[in-house]
Specification:
single chain; about 325 residues; alpha+beta
Length: about 325
């Protein structure tokens, strides 16, 4: 049995037989008589996986959106051990393709699927899986930016990335402080408390790699996958993450942003408070913080050309990003 077959033996515990096997991202995808399944090594906790299975089962029953449901083996367990005692999970999978971020049709299909998902994603709250408050996240990120600025300032010899970082940090830090102020005077605390009370769940990692488009008899269906990062939070968190990733790829195209928001609201209208929260999330320079943080936590003596390119692209997009934020008022 080669590396290729790693994990394949666990299918016996599901009374399934693979008729064809393909490689996926760190997983095996198998055709069986009962449909397509995915086998993946499991590194999380059993408790969270059981809640996840419950969540996916309730989404599936709603009939709103297809998901990669976690299958129980013949013993009724979601985790199966192979002969080497390695833990695996088996999920329902689909024949399709990832959402193409260059295709507006795909983007809008992905956003509509998210809205449909958000309508049915609720579960009694387990505080253990509540996302940290956004205000704490903003405060932490701002403190990190100040620390990195101090670190770079005192460096004797600065490379191109560090020079460009020092040149741009003042403005971005101001955006970060402003976003925190706006958040603190907004209705966010109320939204968060409401979400926790209702047991509102977010996907936690909603991006193009987790949105699959299935062409079925002229009707396009969408499957949403990889719910491992699910948490209890205000659902604008998912909406912001997906929209930001798409808009960065489209140079903050106002029309695409507006259309995404409209497509979402056709299915799940946003309240005034939720729209305000979405705007505050967009106002925070998250991508800039990510880049600075990556630089700081990796080898600082060597800064790749790629990081400098990313910083240049970010500063080139600055005005379009700010215009988009202002347009949301």
């Amino acid at each position: 049995m080669g590396l290729y077959d790693k994990g394949l033996s666990v299918l016996e515990q599901y009374d399934l037989e693979a008729t064809a096997v393909y490689r996926g991202r760190g997983a095996l995808i198998c055709d069986t008589k009962e449909g397509t399944v995915l086998i993946r090594e499991f590194l999380g906790t059993q408790r969270k996986l059981e809640y996840q299975a419950e969540l996916l089962s309730s989404i599936s029953k709603s009939g709103e959106v297809l998901t990669d449901e976690i299958l129980a083996n013949q013993e009724g367990n979601y985790i199966s051990l192979d002969k080497e005692n390695v833990s695996y999970i088996v999920k329902r999978w689909y024949q399709g393709r990832e959402c193409d971020t260059r295709s507006e049709r795909d983007i809008y299909a992905g956003i509509s699927a998210m809205a449909a998902l958000h309508k049915v994603m609720q579960m009694p709250t387990q505080m253990h899986y509540a996302k940290e408050p956004l205000s704490r996240e903003f405060q932490r990120h701002n403190a990190e930016l100040r620390k990195i600025r101090k670190f770079v300032s005192v460096k004797r010899k600065k490379n191109d990335f560090e020079l460009q970082f020092l040149d741009s940090i003042k403005g971005y830090l101001e955006h970060g402080e402003e976003a925190l102020k706006s958040l603190e005077t907004s209705q966010y605390e109320k939204l968060k408390a409401n979400a926790l009370e209702k047991g509102t769940v977010c996907h936690g990692d909603y991006n193009q790699h987790n949105v699959w488009l299935l062409e079925q008899k002229a009707e396009q269906k969408v499957a949403v996958t990889n719910f491992d990062s699910w948490n209890y939070d205000v659902q604008t968190a998912d909406l912001y993450q997906f929209m930001r990733k798409i808009l960065e790829k489209h140079d903050w195209d106002f029309k695409i942003g507006k259309n995404m928001l409209n497509k979402y609201q056709e299915i799940k209208p946003l309240s005034k408070e939720e729209l305000e929260n979405l705007r505050v999330r967009f106002a925070y320079p998250e991508k800039y913080w990510k880049l600075a943080n990556y630089y700081y936590t990796h080898n600082k003596a060597w800064t790749s050309e790629k990081n400098l390119e990313k910083l240049k692209k970010l500063t080139a997009q600055h005005d379009n990003w700010r215009n988009f934020v202002e347009s949301m008022v």
